[in-house]
Write a structure and sequence with these properties.
This protein is mostly beta strands and about 350 residues long. The chain has two domains: about 40-200, Glycosyl hydrolase domain, family 43 (Tachylectin-2, Chain A); about 230-285 and about 300-355, 5 Propeller (Tachylectin-2, Chain A), CATH 2.115.10. The protein has one helix and 21 strands. Strands 1, 18, 19, 20 and 21 form a five-stranded antiparallel β-sheet that branches. A four-stranded antiparallel β-sheet has the order 2-3-4-5, with no helix packed on it. A four-stranded antiparallel β-sheet has the order 6-7-8-9, with no helix packed on it. The longest helix has 12 residues, at about 1-15. The protein is globular, with a radius of gyration of 19 Å. The relative contact order is 0.15. GO terms for molecular function: arabinan endo-1,5-alpha-L-arabinosidase activity. Keywords: Carbohydrate metabolism, Glycoprotein, Glycosidase, Hydrolase, Polysaccharide degradation, Secreted, Signal, Xylan degradation. It comes from Aspergillus tamarii. Belongs to the glycosyl hydrolase 43 family.
């Protein structure tokens, strides 16, 4: 108990340190749920919570509260995505927002390790299953319309998030390669207009490439990066006056071998930077820009929690809540065993910290 208390004090006082791994005891920082999900997005609609995650046709779960119990109620799409590339049956990393009574679910299609990808969108007048219209691709990388234009000629167009400011939307996306980018959506929220050097904003990039052994290199040029793999993805932007916060999934994701885990600290963790503008530049507590490798560690592996990532933020009456997926080391390291977890946020000198449940 003394150890847990000490670790919690260190965690809240020093955001730039991760919590050391210990035995498989319960983590006091994560509010656990029964929901198996990867890359979650959660919305609150009139007191009903909806979660969207990776799975056949974008699986939807519903609960009366974040703690659950969660129940699967259907899917966004009633058939494969109409985008003719990638994993059309099980789109990745959805994010759902509501604008003027319409629900927009943005999703990714791709193949692991390749940047021949696209971000699509479906719309509905309700958050649950049925009635969704798939509008297809908004942006593409690798191949397809616009993929040879800046910045899509150097990115991996997956992991969408959308920041709504008034009646305008900003699409945040990216994985590995050149990192995280942001472009404006058109007023219809289902398309982008003319993307230029001035309105395409580079938000974050991992500073240390992972070198891949030559024998493991995919011969497809869209599935390799000569500069090395740079593990940052799953970005999200939230706002807590006076700052915008860019949240990142940092480090190696998925397909963990429990007998050969990454070196401690190189697995998924959640990092953040802040800016007074939604376009950046975002910096960490040391003032280092996230495009130059900065990023304040907010939450990492601890106790029975391993590799938290895919973050998002809900603003509730009790304050801001950081939600994410994580692996429970007492259960499994398997991709499909990831759970929805959440933690309550406080702010100290304008920087988010994990706090005790209210």
């Amino acid at each position: 108990m003394v150890l847990v208390t000490t670790l919690f004090s260190l965690f809240t006082l020093s955001l730039c340190r991760s919590i050391p791994r210990s035995g498989p005891s319960y983590s006091p920082y994560t509010q656990a749920t029964n929901l198996k999900i990867h890359d979650p997005t959660v919305i609150n609609v009139g007191g009903a919570y909806y979660a969207y995650g990776v799975g056949e046709h974008i699986v939807i779960h519903q609960a009366s509260g974040l703690a659950g119990p969660w129940k699967q109620i259907g899917s966004v799409l009633d058939k494969d995505s109409i985008i003719p590339k990638g994993d059309r049956e099980k789109p990745w990393a959805p994010t759902t927002v509501a604008v003027n009574g319409i629900f927009y679910c943005y999703y990714s299609v791709s193949n692991a390790g390749c940047r021949d990808s696209a971000i699509g969108v479906a719309t509905s007048q309700s958050p649950g299953p049925g009635g969704w219209t798939d509008h297809g691709a908004i942006i593409q990388s690798g191949t397809g319309q616009g993929s040879d234009e800046h910045p899509f000629n150097e990115v991996n167009a997956i992991d969408p998030a959308v920041l709504v400011t008034g009646d305008k939307g900003l699409l945040i996306f990216g994985s590995y390669w050149s990192g995280i980018w942001e472009v404006p959506l058109n007023e219809d929220f289902i398309s982008v207009g003319n993307i230029t050097e001035s309105n395409a904003h580079h938000l974050a990039k991992h500073p240390q490439p992972e070198q891949v052994k030559s024998q493991n290199q995919n011969p497809n040029p869209l599935c390799r990066d000569a500069a090395g793999r740079r593990p940052v993805e799953g970005a999200y932007i939230s706002y807590h006056a006076p700052y915008y916060y860019l949240w990142l999934s940092w480090g190696q994701c998925c397909d963990y071998d429990p007998s050969n885990l990454p070196p401690s600290g190189e697995e998924y963790s959640i990092r953040v930077g802040r800016s007074e503008s939604p376009h950046g530049p975002f910096v960490d507590k040391q003032g280092k820009e996230l495009t130059h490798g900065g990023g304040e560690l907010i939450y990492g592996s601890n106790n029975d929690v391993y590799a938290p990532g895919g973050p998002g933020v809900l603003t509730e009456d009790t304050g801001d809540i950081l939600y994410y997926h994580y692996l429970n080391t007492t259960i499994s390291y398997d991709f499909w065993e990831a759970r929805l977890g959440y933690s309550y946020l406080g702010y100290v000198d304008g920087w988010p910290v994990i706090r005790e449940a209210p």
